[in-house]
Specification:
The protein is an alpha+beta fold and 263 residues long. The protein has eight helices and 14 strands. Bound molecules: coenzyme A. The site of coenzyme A has 22 residues, from helix 2, strand 10, helix 6 and helix 7.
Amino acid sequence: MGVSLEGESVILVPYMKEHVPNYHQWMKDPALLFATGSEPLTLDQEFDMQLSWTQDPLTSSLVCWMSKKDCRMRMLSAAMLRDKKERQGYEMDNDIVGCHKPPVMEMARFTSLLMLRVVIHDGYFSERTFIVLDKQMIDGEFLHGQPHVEAMVGDVNIYMNDPEDPQFAEIEIMIAEPKSRGKGLGKEAVVMMMAFAIENLGIHTFRAKIGESNQASLILFHKLGFQDSSFSEIFKEWTLEFPVTESKGDDLQHCVSKMIIHS
Ligand SMILES: CC(C)(COP(=O)(O)OP(=O)(O)OC[C@H]1O[C@@H](n2cnc3c(N)ncnc32)[C@H](O)[C@@H]1OP(=O)(O)O)[C@@H](O)C(=O)NCCC(=O)NCCS
């Protein structure tokens, strides 16, 4: 069991199998899929994903599922795919291989969903995912190790996917429940994740990729001090960056000075 992080309004807990059905339900919403640049997964794939996130990514080959927008990256272990005979049904696409970093990655087009399958052979990729709980929605007391499905409202992720710089992290936030938006939960979850990642993973730069029409997310990240870095005409999305200077790191730690780490 990983750690849980308790802030003022949210608690970040590890993604557990009990969360999967609700998560899968959220990701059927076309608006959420669009906002997060995601492709739908089957319930089985979502369970596999959750399982793979509980395993140490540095010990085995991994398979990532990513949308073409490279926004929502998902991992499955190669072993699990082999077991499920899901290796069948892909066609190699050399153009896509050429876009990335061969021979580390072997990529293929997932024919039906237009997703990319990426096999990372030497395991430099790692990630951290937390489910966001709204503290006000928790039945009774928060218990570390319990999924508290009744209070889950979204998730926050970081991906360390730069083979040359494992301390460079891409961050994503989703407050999936519409009634839970606009209450400061997204912002607090991002700040807590960043503070945790700086302290525990030594992250020195964060990056966020956000569609140009996603004003809520652009405002959130700009308010946190992320700066526009580039714009992709193809994907119509901004890349924002946040280099962790000493003073910015101190500011973040100050914001979460009351954060409780449950382990
Ligand atoms: C974008 C998203 C994460 C924002 O989370 P949230 O919990 O609703 O945002 P918060 O309440 O923490 O707001 C953070 C700041 O952004 C501002 N903000 C949030 N939503 C806004 C909106 N729709 N319009 C204008 N400002 C907005 C808030 O005013 C707040 O500013 P403040 O710190 O000065 O008070 C949430 O709307 C969401 O998950 N949407 C769908 C999925 C998505 O778009 N994910 C991001 C993919 S890149």
